Amino acid sequence: xxxxxxxxxxxxxxxxxxxxxxxxxxxxxxxxxxxxxxxxxxxxxxxxxxxxxxxxxxxxxxxxxxxxxxxxxxxxxxxxxxxxxxxxxxxxxxxxxxxxxxxxxxxxxxxxxxxxxxxxxxxxxxxxxxxxxxxxxxxxxxxxxxxxxxxxxxxxxxxxxxxxxxxxxxxxxxxxxxxxxxxxxxxxxxxxxxxxxxxxxxxxxxxxxxxxxxxxxxxxxxxxxxxxxxxxxxxxxxxxxxxxxxxxxxxxxxxxxxxxxxxxxxxxxxxxxxxxxxxxxxxxxxxxxxxxxxxxxxxxxxxxxxxxxxxxxxxxxxxxxxxxxxxxxxxxxxxxxxxxxxxxxxxxxxxxxxxxxxxxxxxxxxxxxxxxxxxxxxxxxxxxxxxxxxxxxxxxxxxxxxxxxxxxxxxxxxxxxxxxxxxxxxxxxxxxxxxxxxxxxxxxxxxxxxxxxxxxxxxxxxxxxxxxxxxxxxxxxxxxxxxxxxxxxxxxxxxxxxxxxxxxxxxxxxxxxxxxxxxxxxxxxxxxxxxxxx
Length: 534
Fold this sequence. Notes:
- It is built from 19 helices and 2 strands.
- It has helices spanning 18-26, 31-40, 45-72, 117-131, 135-142, 146-156, 165-172, 183-193, 206-233, 239-268, 275-307, 314-357, 363-405, 411-446, 448-452, 462-472, 478-498, 503-511, 525-533, and strands at residues 173-174, 180-181.
- α6 (146-156) packs across α8.
- The longest helix is centred in the middle third of the chain and has 44 residues, at 314-357.
- It starts with 17 loop residues before the first helix and ends with a helix.
């Protein structure tokens, strides 16, 4: 019976060399037995070091034999299979190695049967999916390899040492009253197990939520204050009390919003932006935010004095007017620059879309077509918002000038109040358009319209068909799919346009307001994703 490949045959010479005798003494330490102990968790550090020495010495002895055989003309030497610790699933080498040396890895069934807690979790997840009508999403999980499923389940258990249904419940169940599986989290974990980049580069961060809250509350208070001021000026006596109370509150909240705007400007600035993009950040957000802060501070002084029945402070009035002029100029410059560049970019991307449409059917061209379509849509929204921002700036300049020229005139405060309302409307309109676009873009990417036209899908509601396609691709919601699409498109554009030289990808990157720097490998994947969306 041939010896196992991981045990070297003894030298046939009657005078054993020191190398051979050492190998003989260490060969008693069987690697196969060591593997069994490792799998059972009984191998000590000292034993592992012994295994390493044994394997290394065997390799050296074999090298001497190979050289000796080559000189003597003897037959080809046996090829030992040296299994190294840390790579327990290494395949046995061919040649003289026997089947006994191969460490067989038994195949794992799709339902993970025989894998203890993994099988229990698999069955539980399947039951939960059926109960929640998420069979389609579970189907995405079910086509993963057994190893990928087990990796996903470990993540769902939060890395618990012992895999069980209870461990998974602690991590995956959500809800205050009626508990159910967090299918959004389930979707992300499944895609991560498939080695998909699930980074959402446009996910809201803490600073975004703070900004939304500040802008929303200041916008609401500003709207009430402005409307009351206008009504009071036009003779509505009942609005006087509201105007007096709301003015200082609106000023304070607007000051918070201005600070948030300045901070976001510092975070959003990127060297890869175009000149117009930088102007929008520096002037349209940073400088205007600083001017707004000064204006709101001065305006609040007079608001408080008016509530207290005191005369208006002339210096505060002038400061508020000056702040309105400076801030208005910054808004107007940033808005005008954005309007011109966004319009130009949208036109270029529209032309590229037409060219790519002619290549439709090719996978790479289809991805570029989606990227160009999304980029054009974003640029058109930015153009609209920038136009309204420029108008807002012009109104603030006029209002500030009137405020300084005639402090007692209501015209200045009215114009400034209208400008604030216009700015709030512009932000809301853009937010709504972006929200609605997600669904339309996902439908385009998943070809929902084409699926709806198929005879077998007649009578099925579009929303049901969309959800079925989403779950088939591993998504639980439109938002998840949209975020993944943006990430995938950004990765594609980076690899082909920043790292590569693809002409169309470069056009798209430049069309969303970025400039490529090959040496710095800029813009980053994250910046491309942000500019595709925002």
